[in-house]
Design goal:
Blueprint: E1 2-11, E2 21-29, E3 33-37, H1 44-52, E4 59-64, E5 67-70, E6 83-86, H2 98-103, H3 111-124, H4 140-152, E7 158-162, H5 170-187, E8 191-195, H6 198-204, E9 207-212, E10 215-220, H7 222-227, H8 232-237, E11 242-249, E12 252-255, E13 258-261, E14 272-277, E15 282-284, E16 292-301, E17 306-313, E18 319-326, E19 336-341, E20 348-350
Parallel strand pairs: 3-8, 3-9, 6-7, 7-8
Antiparallel strand pairs: 1-2, 1-4, 4-5, 9-10, 11-12, 11-14, 12-13, 14-20, 15-19, 16-17, 16-19, 17-18
Length: 351
């Protein structure tokens, strides 16, 4: 059974003409970590708030553990949905200790059971020794752990995260991604989080739904969505890519820069497709057959690699910009770059 089912969800706010969420559907399996990914204002937080019960859908259905909690005829109050929430600003009680914050959600349990559950979740979240501290005595990462522990303590059917890493610096963010993923896995919880950062998705999500203007553009495992986007918007959202038209030919595609090989079965019903070719699909090469030659327009040192933008003349003589990644020590001083398409990579194919 799915923990969460969303069917044809719509949301229009009073006084507005456009829908904030349009015909949105999604299923989240038990124990799965699902990400709602999109830029600011795309509707992802509104979807999260409708799951929690903080917003009422205009139409559509939401089911939790097979039970309808929101429809045209029924609306279950937030406190009766069995949903845990970790807010963007943590929302810890400043006058309560870590122990008291975590125990707050266990008020329905007896004193002894409440204490046992609090001890267990503190150990799971790695908060031993911090029980008597107040929120102002904690680091950002520790506050995040406390907020997660408090949400997990009542053993909710699903836990929701609103931009869980936005208040952390880049070094802490990397560690917290790993920590939160491990805590969720160990607890066996089902989780849905909203984010605008693809690195969050690639690090911890089992699946991702990419949202634009309230519409679910594509859902799937992060690696699949990254490698095989269904449209140019999704391709670009997951990082830099080379979008170019390709005419299907034997063994690959004819493109504006030349022939791109492909070993995967090609769609027989199509003659022309849009390709998404990541910069890492290309690698520097010598002046050899099957390689491309480009005039270097600019280059940027990005630590692990050089990002090189080349202008490549295709068979028709027209120049096309191509972004490639090269090793940090690669010699680009000549102003010319020779590169080839890597045989172990496959372009994303869009109709």
């Amino acid at each position: 059974m799915n923990t969460l089912e969303i069917k044809n969800l719509h949301k229009k706010f009073p006084g507005t003409q456009a829908y904030a969420v349009r015909d949105f559907s999604l299923e989240v399996a038990r124990g799965e970590i699902m990400a709602l990914l999109g830029e600011s204002g795309c509707g992802k937080t509104t979807i999260l708030r409708m799951i929690a019960g903080f917003e009422t859908p205009t139409r559509g259905e939401i089911l939790l553990n097979g039970e309808v909690v929101s429809s045209d005829r029924l609306f279950v109050e937030p406190g009766k949905r069995g949903v845990g929430i970790v807010f963007q600003d943590y929302a810890l009680f400043p006058h309560k200790t870590v122990w008291e914050n975590i125990c707050f959600g266990l008020f329905r349990h007896g004193r002894e059971e409440r204490s046992e559950k609090a001890v267990a979740i503190i150990q799971l979240a790695g908060l031993q020794g911090l029980e008597q501290r107040y929120p102002h005595q904690l680091s950002g990462g520790q506050k995040q752990r406390v907020a997660l522990a408090r949400a997990l303590a009542p053993e909710p059917g699903i836990i929701l995260f609103d931009e869980p890493f936005s208040n952390l610096d880049s070094m802490r963010k990397t560690q917290m991604r790993e920590d939160i993923r491990d805590i969720i896995r160990k607890s066996g919880a089902t989780a849905v989080f909203v984010t605008h950062d693809t690195r969050d998705v690639l690090a911890i999500a089992d699946r991702v739904a990419v949202i634009r203007d309230g519409v679910n553009l594509q859902t799937g495992p992060p690696g699949e969505v990254y490698a095989h986007p269904t449209n140019p918007y999704v391709a670009r959202f997951f990082g830099k890519t080379n979008l170019m038209r390709g005419v299907i030919a034997e063994g690959g595609y004819q493109t504006p820069i030349g022939f791109i090989p492909a070993d995967l079965p090609l769609p027989a019903s199509m003659k022309e497709v849009m390709l998404s070719i990541r910069p890492g699909h290309f690698e520097p090469a010598g002046e050899e057959e099957g390689c491309f030659c480009g005039r270097i327009k600019r280059r940027s040192f990005l630590g692990e690699y050089l990002e090189v933008v080349c202008a490549v003349k295709g068979p028709g003589g027209q120049e096309t910009e191509v972004v490639i990644h090269a090793p940090p020590g690669h010699d680009c001083d000549s102003g010319i770059c020779h590169f080839r398409y890597r045989g172990d990579r496959h372009p994303g194919v869009m109709g």
